[in-house]
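Duplicate of #3305? Posting structure anyway:
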C-alpha cells in the first residue's frame, strides 16, 4: 500500500512577541551580584512560527535584520547527545549554565555563520530547539521582525530569546496560550518556564548574562533584580506601581556587543579588585535608594520641586559617573550627556552595556517645550536618534492563530511568512503585527502575590 503523505499542518501559524527593556539603574553591577532596576519598553520583537506539513523535515530561520536565512534538516541535527539521559534537560528545568558538550555538538551546524551576531542568534535557536524538542519534532519556518535597535543597550537579545523560548514551548505543547480564567498560579508557572529558557538563549548570545533583561522581557512592567548567588534563583521584586517616568531615550548609533563590554568590566575588576569593588558597591547603593524612592507612596515624577525626584535625578547622574569609571561609556554617550546638561533638561546616564548604544535622560518637571525642541534638533543634527517609547508595558504575548482583522474590509487576514517579511521599516512592522492592535493575549505581569515565579 502506498503511504500517503500528510499535507496537514499540526498547528496553525502563530506569533509571539516580547518587549525591549530599559535598565534604569544598576547595569554591569547586576552581573556582579548587585541590585538593578529595569522596566519594559514599548519597542518589541515579533516571531512568526509557520509549521510545515509533516513530511517536510526542515526548520528554517529567517532573521532578516541580521541577514540570516538558513535551513537545517531536522534529522541531521545532533539529537543523540541532546537526548542522552545524562544531558537531557526538560522544559521545567532551570538551567544556570550551558553544557559545553552540547555547545560543541552544535558547532558543525553553525559553520556557515561567519560573524558573532548571526552565529550566536542561530546558536540560541538551535540550543533551545534541540533541548525542548525531540527528533520527531515537526518542521517549521521561524521569521523574526523587530522594532528594537540591535546592540543598542535595549535588550534586543533578551527579547529574541524570550520569543524563541515561548514559541518553542508552545510548539512542543508544554505551554498553553493564555486564556480568560487561567489560574494565576498557572500563569506564573508558565512565565517562570518561559523566563528560564530565555535565560539559556541569553547565555548563548551574551556568555554571562545576569538575567535581568529576560526577566523584564518575560513579565513586562518593571522589576528590582539582584542575583547574589548564581547557583540560586535571583531576588526579584515586581514594581507594580512603577511610575511613568518622563524620559528622553537617545541612540548614539554606535554599535557594540554586550558580551565584550561585560568581559571588559570583569577584566577591570580583576586588575583593580578593591577599587572596582567600591564602584560596584556604590552602584548597588544607588539602585537600592532609587528603589526606595520610586516605590515610596509620595513619590511624584511630575511635581515641581519634589525633593525625592531631585534625589532621583542625582542618582541618575551618579550612576552614570560610576559607569564611566568602569570604562563602559563612549565619547558619543558623553556628547549626549553634555548636550542634555547644556540645555538643562535633566540627568543623563548610559543604559545597558554602554560602549555606544543608548542613553536616557530623566527629564526635570519644568522643562519648557522650546528647550526640548532645541535640544532634539541639536541631537538630530549631530546624528543621534531619538525614540518615542513608553515605559512599563506588557511582557511576552501570543497571537494564536496569526490571523488579524485590520478593519479595512479584507476580513480575517492570515499573517504568512511572506507578509511578515514584506513589512518595510518599524512603522509597517507595527502596523502589521504590532502589540497595540487586536489579537494579542498576554500571560500578564509577574505577580508576587501569587508566588515568586523565580523561586
Ligand atoms: N532582530 C534580531 N534578529 C536576530 N538576532 C537578533 C535581533 N536582535 C538581537 N539579536 C541577537 O542579539 C544580539 C545583540 O545582543 P546584545 O549585544 O546583547 O545587544 P542588545 O543590547 O541589543 O541586547 C545580536 O548580535 C543578535 O545575535
Ligand atoms: C551590562 C548588562 O548589565 C546589561 C546589558 O544590556 P544590553 O545587552 O546592552 O541590552 C549585562 C547583563 O545584565 O546581563
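Output from current build:
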Amino acid at each position: 500500500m502506498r503511504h500517503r503523505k500528510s499535507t496537514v499542518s499540526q498547528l496553525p501559524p502563530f506569533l509571539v512577541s516580547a518587549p525591549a527593556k530599559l535598565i534604569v539603574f544598576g547595569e554591569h553591577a547586576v552581573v556582579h551580584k548587585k541590585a538593578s532596576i529595569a522596566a519594559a519598553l514599548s519597542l518589541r520583537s515579533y516571531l512568526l512560527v509557520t509549521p510545515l506539513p509533516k513530511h517536510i523535515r526542515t526548520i528554517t530561520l529567517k532573521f532578516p535584520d541580521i541577514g540570516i536565512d538558513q535551513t537545517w534538516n531536522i534529522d541531521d541535527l545532533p539529537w543523540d547527545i541532546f537526548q542522552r539521559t545524562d544531558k537531557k534537560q526538560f522544559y521545567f528545568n532551570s538551567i544556570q549554565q550551558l553544557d559545553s558538550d552540547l555547545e560543541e555538538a552544535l558547532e558543525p551546524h553553525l559553520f556557515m555563520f561567519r560573524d558573532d551576531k548571526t552565529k550566536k542568534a542561530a546558536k540560541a535557536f538551535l540550543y533551545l530547539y534541540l533541548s525542548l524538542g525531540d527528533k520527531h519534532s515537526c518542521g517549521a519556518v521561524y521569521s523574526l521582525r523587530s522594532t528594537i535597535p540591535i546592540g543598542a543597550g535595549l535588550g534586543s537579545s533578551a527579547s529574541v530569546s524570550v520569543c524563541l523560548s515561548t514559541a518553542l514551548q508552545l510548539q512542543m505543547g508544554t505551554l498553553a496560550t493564555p486564556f480568560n480564567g487561567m489560574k494565576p498560579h498557572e500563569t506564573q508557572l508558565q512565565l517562570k518556564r518561559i523566563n528560564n529558557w530565555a535565560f539559556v538563549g541569553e547565555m548563548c548570545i551574551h556568555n554571562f548574562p545576569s538575567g535581568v533583561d529576560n526577566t523584564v522581557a518575560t513579565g513586562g512592567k518593571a522589576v528590582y533584580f539582584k542575583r547574589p548567588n548564581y547557583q540560586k534563583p535571583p531576588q526579584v521584586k515586581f514594581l507594580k506601581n512603577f511610575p511613568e517616568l518622563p524620559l528622553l531615550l537617545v541612540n548614539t548609533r554606535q554599535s557594540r556587543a554586550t558580551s565584550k563590554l561585560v568581559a571588559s568590566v570583569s577584566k577591570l575588576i580583576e586588575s583593580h579588585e578593591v577599587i572596582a569593588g567600591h564602584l560596584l558597591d556604590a552602584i548597588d547603593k544607588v539602585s537600592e535608594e532609587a528603589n526606595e524612592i520610586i516605590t515610596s507612596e509620595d513619590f511624584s515624577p511630575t511635581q515641581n520641586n519634589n525633593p525625592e525626584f531631585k534625589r532621583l535625578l542625582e542618582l541618575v547622574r551618579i550612576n552614570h559617573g560610576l559607569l564611566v569609571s568602569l570604562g563602559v561609556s563612549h565619547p558619543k554617550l558623553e556628547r549626549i550627556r553634555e548636550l542634555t546638561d547644556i540645555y538643562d533638561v535633566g540627568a543623563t546616564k548610559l543604559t545597558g552595556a554602554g560602549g555606544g548604544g543608548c542613553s536616557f535622560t530623566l527629564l526635570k518637571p519644568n522643562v519648557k517645550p522650546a528647550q526640548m525642541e532645541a535640544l532634539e534638533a541639536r541631537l538630530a543634527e549631530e546624528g543621534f536618534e531619538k525614540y518615542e517609547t513608553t515605559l512599563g508595558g506588557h511582557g511576552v504575548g501570543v497571537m494564536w492563530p496569526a490571523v488579524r482583522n485590520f478593519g479595512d474590509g479584507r476580513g480575517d487576514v492570515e499573517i504568512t511568512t511572506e507578509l511578515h517579511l514584506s513589512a518595510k521599516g518599524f512603522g509597517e512592522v507595527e502596523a502589521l503585527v504590532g502589540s497595540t492592535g487586536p489579537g494579542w493575549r498576554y500571560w500578564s505581569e509577574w505577580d508576587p502575590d501569587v508566588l515568586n515565579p523565580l523561586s
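Confirmed duplicate; merging threads. The two ends are 55 Å apart (CA to CA). The chain has 13 helices and 15 strands.
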